[in-house]
C-alpha cells in the first residue's frame, strides 16, 4: 500500500511544472526553488559579459582586464531589487518569504526593503526602529524572525527608490492614496504584484486593485492570492498560493521564483481578474460564515453558506469580466482560500463576535478590540459589492452578498443570513 506522503505527492503533482511532474513532491520540494532558479539564473549573462569585457589601454599598451572584477560589477548593477509596500501581518510574512529567497538567488539583491506606516509603540519606540533592532515585527507578527536582510523604512518614496519589483500588501482602502504618492517616483519598467484583497468602486464601476496600480503608476501588475493564513505560513506550515498574470508568463514565473519555498508552493494562472476577485469576494462569504458560527447554527448550515457563497463568487466574477476562467475557482485562490477563510480567518472571527452580540456591537468597535491594529476587509468589500449590485440592478441575483451587507449595517438581524435561501434566483 502506498505511503501517505506518496499519495499526497500524487494529489499535488499539478502544483509543479510539467518538467518536474515525474519527481515525487516531497523529493521535489527542497529542490523546487533551485530548479526554478535555472530559468532566471544570470550565469550565462555573467559569463558572456566576462568574455566580452573590453581590454584597457594605457600608453599604447594593452592591459588585460580583471574579468572577475568586471563580472562582479556587472552582476551587482543588474541584480533585481525588491520592496514590500506594507508591513502588517501578511506583509511581514511576505517579506520573510521573499527575503529567504533573495539571500540564496544570485539574480536578486540580498536586501529587501519593507515600507512601514510608522507607529509609536506603548514603549515609546518607533515601530520601524523596533523591527530593525529585533528583526521582527513586534506588533503585527511577534515572535517571528523576518530575516536580517529585511530593512524597515518609514519613508515610502525612499523604500521604493531603485526597486525593480514592488510587492503591494496593504489594506485595500489605502491603496489609492499610496499610488498617488508614488506617481512619477518609480520607473516604467518596474514589475508589481498585489497581495491585496479588495476593490475600489468608482462612478464608472468597480476597479480591481491591480488595475488601479497599473493605471496610476503605468506598470504591469500581477496578483497573488490563496489559502494563506499569515500566521501559519510564518510558522512554515505547508501552504500554497496562485499568481494571476495577464500575458507575460516569464514575469509570472519570476514571481513564482521569488515567493516559492519548500513549504509555500506557488502556481501561475493566466487570469488576473479571476484570481483577484476570488481573493476579494471570499471575505464577504467569511463574514456570513462568522454569523453562522456566532448563532451556533452548525456545520451543515455553514457548509451550505460556503457553497452558495462560492456560486455567487463565480457568477459575480464572470458577470463583471467575461474573461474569468471556471478553472480558476479550483485553484488555491478559489475554493481553498474560501474554505480556510471561513474556518479560521479574521473576518469570520469578528463576524462571529458581532452575531453573538446580536448586532449590538459595531464592527469598528470589535475590529479595534480584537485585531490589534489589523484591518477587516470583508465588511468594506461587502459594501462595495452591494454598490455594484445595486447600480447594475443585480441585487436579486446575489441574495447572500446583499444580505451580508444589510446585516453589517444593521438593516437586518444576524439571523437573516439563512433567510436568503428562500429566494432562488436564476443566475
- Main beta sheet: strand number and arrangement? 8 strands, mixed
Largest sheet strand order: 5-4-3-6-7-10-11-12
Radius of gyration: 23 Å
The beta-strand count equals: 12
What is the 3D shape? globular
- Termini separation (Å)? 45 Å
The secondary structure category is alpha/beta
Mean pLDDT: 84
Q: Which stretches are poorly predicted, pLDDT < 50 over at least 5 residues?
A: 1-67, 69-74
Give the helix tally: 19
Into which percent range does the helicity of residues fall?
40-55%
Strand content: 5-15%
Summarize the structure.
The protein is of the alpha/beta class.
Description:
The structure is a single chain. It is built from 19 helices and 12 strands. The chain is an alpha/beta fold and 427 residues long. The chain has an 8-stranded mixed beta sheet, sandwiched between helices. The longest helix has 23 residues, at 272-294.
Helices and strands in order:
Layout: H1 4-11, H2 25-28, H3 32-40, H4 43-51, E1 56-58, E2 61-63, H5 67-77, E3 80-85, H6 89-104, E4 108-115, H7 127-134, E5 150-153, H8 156-160, E6 165-168, H9 175-182, E7 191-194, E8 199-202, E9 205-208, H10 209-217, E10 220-225, H11 230-234, E11 239-244, H12 249-259, E12 264-269, H13 272-294, H14 299-320, H15 332-344, H16 346-356, H17 363-370, H18 378-392, H19 399-408
Parallel strand pairs: 3-4, 3-6, 4-5, 6-7, 7-10, 11-12
Antiparallel strand pairs: 1-2, 8-9, 10-11
Amino acid at each position: 500500500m502506498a505511503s501517505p506522503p506518496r499519495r499526497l505527492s500524487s494529489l499535488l503533482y499539478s502544483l509543479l511544472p510539467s518538467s518536474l511532474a515525474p519527481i515525487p513532491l516531497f523529493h521535489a520540494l527542497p529542490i523546487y526553488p533551485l530548479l526554478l532558479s535555472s530559468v532566471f539564473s544570470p550565469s550565462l549573462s555573467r559569463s558572456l559579459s566576462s568574455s566580452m569585457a573590453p581590454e584597457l589601454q594605457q600608453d599604447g599598451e594593452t592591459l588585460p582586464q580583471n574579468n572577475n572584477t568586471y563580472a562582479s560589477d556587472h552582476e551587482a548593477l543588474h541584480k533585481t531589487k525588491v520592496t514590500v509596500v506594507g508591513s502588517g501581518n501578511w506583509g511581514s510574512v511576505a517579506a520573510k518569504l521573499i527575503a529567504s529567497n533573495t539571500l540564496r538567488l544570485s539574480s536578486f539583491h540580498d536586501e529587501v526593503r519593507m515600507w512601514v506606516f510608522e507607529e509609536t509603540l506603548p514603549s515609546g519606540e518607533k515601530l520601524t526602529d523596533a523591527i530593525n533592532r529585533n528583526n521582527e515585527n513586534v506588533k503585527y507578527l511577534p515572535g517571528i524572525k523576518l530575516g536580517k536582510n529585511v530593512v524597515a523604512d518609514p519613508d515610502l518614496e525612499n523604500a521604493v527608490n531603485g526597486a525593480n519589483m514592488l510587492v503591494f500588501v496593504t489594506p485595500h482602502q489605502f491603496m489609492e492614496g499610496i499610488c498617488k504618492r508614488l506617481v512619477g517616483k518609480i520607473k516604467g519598467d518596474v514589475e508589481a504584484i498585489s497581495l491585496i484583497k479588495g476593490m475600489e468602486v468608482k462612478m464608472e464601476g468597480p476597479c480591481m486593485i491591480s488595475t488601479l496600480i497599473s493605471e496610476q503608476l503605468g506598470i504591469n501588475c500581477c496578483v497573488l492570492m490563496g489559502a494563506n493564513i499569515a500566521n501559519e505560513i510564518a510558522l512554515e506550515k505547508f501552504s500554497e498560493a496562485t499568481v494571476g498574470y495577464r500575458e507575460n508568463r516569464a514575469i509570472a514565473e519570476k514571481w513564482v521564483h521569488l515567493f516559492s519555498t519548500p513549504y509555500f508552493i506557488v502556481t501561475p494562472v493566466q487570469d488576473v481578474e479571476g484570481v483577484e476577485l476570488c481573493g476579494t469576494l471570499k471575505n464577504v462569504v467569511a463574514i456570513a460564515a462568522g454569523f453562522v458560527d456566532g448563532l451556533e447554527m452548525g456545520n451543515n448550515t455553514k457548509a451550505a453558506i460556503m457553497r452558495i457563497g462560492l456560486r455567487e463568487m463565480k457568477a459575480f466574477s464572470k458577470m463583471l469580466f467575461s474573461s474569468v476562467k471556471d478553472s480558476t475557482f479550483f485553484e488555491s485562490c478559489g475554493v481553498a482560500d474560501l474554505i480556510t477563510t471561513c474556518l479560521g480567518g479574521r473576518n469570520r472571527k469578528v463576524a462571529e463576535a458581532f452575531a453573538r452580540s446580536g448586532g449590538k456591537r459595531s464592527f469598528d468597535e470589535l475590529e479595534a478590540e480584537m485585531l490589534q491594529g489589523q484591518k477587516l476587509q470583508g465588511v468594506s468589500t461587502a459594501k462595495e459589492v452591494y454598490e455594484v449590485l445595486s447600480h447594475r440592478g443585480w441585487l436579486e441575483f446575489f441574495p447572500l452578498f446583499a444580505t451580508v451587507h444589510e446585516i453589517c449595517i444593521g438593516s437586518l438581524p444576524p439571523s437573516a443570513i439563512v433567510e436568503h435561501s428562500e429566494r432562488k434566483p436564476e443566475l
